[in-house]
Amino acid sequence: MPLQSHREDEDRGGVTVDLDDGKARMRAKNLRIMDFFNIPNALFRFQNPASVRATVSFDVRWLGPATGRSAVTSPPGSSGQLLMSPATMRWSAKNAQGFSFKSNPSGTTSVFGQLGRVRNGIFSH
């Protein structure tokens, strides 16, 4: 399920961004994914089963104000701007094998959050 940009739907989630103020929100509810259990298995698929069905829900908020703006100039052909913004997040997941995880319901605050608009490769033209 792709997340819809510039709109939020209470049931499905979405993405809204205001780079001028350093604010954004990205949400999803019961987004269907495959759980590969760990990064090495996701890359090389040596476990059996390699993956199982899973769902994730998350709500990430970049709260502003924007600080620490910096230009993106590498790799060659890239352009854009990144900025620092405090962020909070909530996350939950469950898979078909019965594993589940839920972050602290009061939200988790990051050490730093970063927002930006970057173009690179074929998209930089």
Keywords:
single chain; 125 residues; mainly beta; seven-stranded antiparallel beta sheet; three-stranded antiparallel beta sheet; 1 helix; 53% strand
- Work out the helicity level: under 10%
Determine the number of helices (DSSP H or I, runs of at least 4 residues): 1
The general outline is globular
Order of helices and strands: EEEHEEEEEEE
Regions with pLDDT < 50 over 5+ consecutive residues? none
Mean pLDDT: 87
Q: Specify the structural class.
A: mainly beta
In angstroms, what is the radius of gyration?
A: 17 Å
**What portion of the residues fall into strands of 2 or more residues?**
over 45%
Q: How many individual domains?
A: 1
- In whole angstroms, the N-to-C terminal distance is 28 Å
Number of strands: 10
Instruction: Report the sheet with the most strands, covering strand number, pairing sense and barrel closure.
Output: 7 strands, antiparallel
